[in-house]
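Intended use. Records like the one below are meant for learning the mapping from a protein sequence to its folded structure. Do not use them to infer anything beyond what is encoded.
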Amino acid sequence: MKKLILLLMMIVGLGVNQGCRISYKFNGAALDYNIYKTVHIGEFPIRAALVYAPLQQTFENELTDYVTRNTRLRVVDGAADLEIEGEITGYSLTPQAVTEDAYASMTRLTITVRVKYTDTKKEGNDIDQSFSAYRDFEASQMLMDVQEELCNQISKELVELIFNATLGNW
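Structure written out for the chain above:
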């Protein structure tokens, strides 16, 4: 046992002496901050058939806040090292959990966002992809009563999905 501990200490000591550096990133960002310093987050206009006007601002604010909290990138207007833009392409309601009398007991709100991510520093990292998330709510509730909270929850989930696929490099 003592030999094992001694061996581990020697390995760790060699790593320290050789200038090795162990780095953990708990926020999921996998960026080289020597290369990437700025990000531009464009507008995400609503192009869906159904429109909830506050959704655009809610989503854009959530995305900007998340990037600011989880990276050291500076958010800028105009040209940047990384660019994120897109549009809200889907906002739909569908019945779920149909009861025996053919009425829906749950309704699903689904939001879809198309994202165009451009890495101006490295080719091959660009993404043009759609992301969707949803929440179910009681069909007895009016959409107007739950819409704001559901949009906030869905926006948070979409932002995490987008972050992981782009800046998180998953």
